[in-house]
Design brief:
By secondary structure, the chain is mainly alpha-helical. It is built from 5 helices and no strands. It starts with a helix and ends in a 9-residue tail after the last helix.
């Protein structure tokens, strides 16, 4: 995949896949490291895209959001007693939504008709 093709991939998609598929793979296989690898690879990919589109400061903030969402899913599931998939779904929607708004949404001005 070329660099230009990779930059057309929405960073928010990688965030969603990293959180949801990472959890699903870890739970389905019983190998937490495999789910962690998916989480890490998707996070690095999303960070690379964010850095190219919005710069290092935004990327650092989104990286903190991504890792924070991972931690919050654990807190909601283990600490608050929510079902695991529900907790993962909540944080995935939130993190992917913020990433979409900050990185993926077009910054083109809307022209009046």
């Amino acid at each position: 995949m070329s660099t230009s093709a990779l930059t057309r991939v929405p960073a928010s998609l990688l965030v969603a896949v990293g959180l949801a598929a990472g959890f699903g793979i870890a739970q389905g296989t019983g190998v937490r490291a495999l789910g962690g690898a998916v989480f890490a690879v998707c996070g690095v990919g999303a960070a690379w895209i964010a850095a190219r589109r919005r710069g290092p400061a935004v990327t650092a903030g989104l990286a903190a959001l991504y890792v924070g969402a991972f931690v919050l899913a654990h807190v909601l599931a283990l600490g608050a007693g929510l079902p695991a998939w529900f907790a993962v779904s909540l944080v995935t929607v939130a993190a992917a939504g913020v990433t979409f708004g900050v990185v993926d949404r077009s910054r083109e001005p809307v022209r009046a008709r």
